[in-house]
Amino acid sequence: MHELAITESVVEAVTGRLPDAKITCVNLEIGALSGVVADSVRFCFDLVAEGTNLQGARLEISEPAGRCQCRICGAQFDADGPIALCPCGSVEVTIVSGQELKITSVQVA
Amino acid sequence: MCATCGCSGAAVIRLVTADEPAPADGRRAAGLPRGVRDLREHRTHSRAAHDHGPHDHGPPDHPEDDDLLVAGQRDSDRTVVLQQKVLAKNDSLAQRNREWLRQRGILAVNLMSSPGAGKTTLLERTAAELAGRLSISVIEGDQETALDARRIRSAGCKVVQINTGVGCHLDAEMLADGLQALDPQAGSIVVIENVGNLVCPALFDLGEAARVVLASVTEGADKPVKYPHMFRQADLVLVTKTDLLPYVDFDIRRYAADLRKVSPGAMMLKLSAVTGEGMDSWYDWLRRRTPAPQE
Predict the structure, then answer these.
(1) The model's pTM
(2) Is the ipTM above a cut-off of 0.85?
(3) Which residue from A minimizes the CA distance to B77?
(4) Which of chain B's residues have a Cβ under 8 Å away from the Cβ of A70?
(5) Does a structural domain hold residue A32?
(6) What is the CATH number of the domain that holds A14?
């Protein structure tokens, strides 16, 4: 359940950046290949935010899809999981998106 | 509850060294070896909730939060753009650990596997057989107890136990504390035995130079495809308990093929820490990566 630690990192980062602001919304990006389950972060968020200036804040999570590029044939293709195989059969692929794990912005009252 | 400031909701880090006198604490006396030291830190909750400043952990110390934050810009609609990596703080601390280790020519290896794959047994034999040839010390990560630290200590190895409590992985801050307590010598090897878990430790950079993932033949050959996040980041995969191969259904060719799909660059070695088969290749791998100390 590393999502608990991830969620704690989110709250700590926002609190550290904006210690005196009443946060009403937190916008996150959690990519499909990031290894973090967005629903678990949602589950943890209210618990972790309690007692901080994020208490009661809305959590908005965008989940960018996985996308890879083959290092052999150069093709780009969608990857719906962390085991990415190019249609050409190559396993030599570079992940170009889907690994995001980022606080994009917050809204303050 | 945090022993430093009394606040609640904190993960507790307990660093246990095997060579300090045990406190008069019944629970620890039952579960931990001679020498228990609590370095309880309030860690995961906001510093904004506290009046006191960051703790002095000695080298490698922790950066101030301000160093970690990408400057946001405030617009008129009360939206503050942060564009900050969620794990920015951990990654920054990991980088500090990495630099601290590099300056001392210390090879840090992050050893990860499911519980029971043979990490501690591997280290026991490694410590015993390399004694006098390579200097090795160990940082043990478990949720509770110092049972593993006791085993490593018995093998003649300097060891620090980190108990994560409810935590399912080590992070860079824990390693910084662990290194401070361990005080490894320059030019040595520090093996970090992470909490037994094939999921969570994959996400947290500690500052290690290499990631080694163990999978025992008794676990089945499907681990690389079941836990791709872990195996994708492995520099070396050790297939352990090969002495049991005659008794289990483990298709090593399938395992190697699946590993290549998940992690094309990972090296794979087979070994048994009971019979000694394959151990020399593991020692060679360690020896080749141990850097020379830098002035």
Answers:
(1) 0.79
(2) yes
(3) A107
(4) none
(5) yes
(6) 3.30.2320.50
